[in-house]
Design goal:
Length: 302
């Protein structure tokens, strides 16, 4: 892999921000996978004994997780952060529409729901100010995973919990193969392997990270439906190596033809590899003398 190839996969944050902003009104209806992963993360949170004073929802999208976390931890202050302003506007609307009893409890406890428009890689939050950092399918849009994890670590209180999900390298593998690389152009983002994420967590200072992988397959009638769903959630190709301008009819016909090799039982699959992880921000003294912290990779039942 040469330097030019690395640069071609760099995320154009301005394009990504615009794409997600435009998708704010269509996101919830199309984000089936995101909802399923969110529910799985919430179920895992049931196993953790935690009473957070402040929660950061990093990459909140339209705010579904923010509202679920606020209902679960009624006395907590929730900070919903996203780099696309229209997503935060949808989050605010959702907050206004929460149940009456929840609103009354929030007012009595003096809790506020804060909306912050910012990038995960540069958090405008005070150090050691957050007890729970939550991030559902967002950090794959970071160009520097180490920077993002260091920021999470910085803003977390000692003994605070990081819980996240992100996409692994098998995500959209059918689309990646079907499009190929035309004249060096990229078609799908490069996603980071679970083991590399674990190493990055340790480098950032987190204690004993636990990671595992689950694979989802969504099925479609045709390639256009795959692309339509990705557009509806704002997941356009935002890499620097993407094709510029409109793609020709020949390209689309070739894409459809190449994708057909994956058709099974009359449907076209789209694979998503989801990496789940959690780790604690232990006291600095809790790290091993040699600077090494164990990483646990959990196998999932098929």
């Amino acid at each position: 892999m040469n330097a030019n190839e690395i640069d071609s996969y760099r995320i154009d944050k301005a394009r990504a921000r615009t794409s997600f902003g435009r998708a704010a009104n269509t996101y919830d209806a199309a984000a089936i996978l995101q909802k399923q992963v969110r529910e799985e993360m919430l179920n895992r949170l049931d196993l953790v004994k935690l009473t957070p004073h402040t929660i950061l929802d990093a990459g909140c999208g339209t705010g579904a997780a923010s509202h679920a976390l606020q209902k679960r931890f009624v006395k907590s202050q929730v900070i919903s952060l996203d780099f696309a302003l229209p997503m935060l506007q949808k989050t605010r609307v959702g907050s206004d529409n929460t149940g009456l009893m929840h609103q009354i409890k929030s007012m009595l406890s003096g809790v506020k729901h804060n909306l912050v428009c910012a990038d995960i890689e540069s958090l405008p939050l005070a150090s050691k100010s957050v007890d729970l950092v939550w991030s559902n399918l967002a950090i794959q849009w970071c160009n520097d995973l180490d920077a993002a994890l260091l920021e999470f670590y910085r803003v977390m209180q000692p003994e605070g919990l990081l819980m996240f999900s992100t996409f692994g390298p098998d995500t959209l593998k059918e689309l990646r193969v079907a499009t190929g690389r035309q004249d060096g152009m990229t078609s799908v983002s490069r996603f980071i392997d679970m083991h590399d994420i674990g190493d990055a967590l340790v480098r950032a200072g987190f204690s004993a990270p636990v990671l595992d992988v689950e694979r989802f397959t969504l099925t479609y009638d045709d390639v256009k439906s795959v692309m339509r769903d990705l557009k509806s959630i704002g997941a356009h190709n935002a890499t620097d190596g993407r094709a510029r301008g409109l793609l020709g009819r020949g390209f689309l016909q070739k894409l459809e033809s190449n994708y057909e090799q994956y058709r099974t039982d009359g449907k076209l699959p789209a694979t998503f590899e989801v990496v789940y992880g959690h780790a604690w921000r232990g006291q600095e003294k809790a790290r091993f003398d040699n600077g090494v912290s164990p990483i646990t990779f959990k196998a999932r039942d098929k």
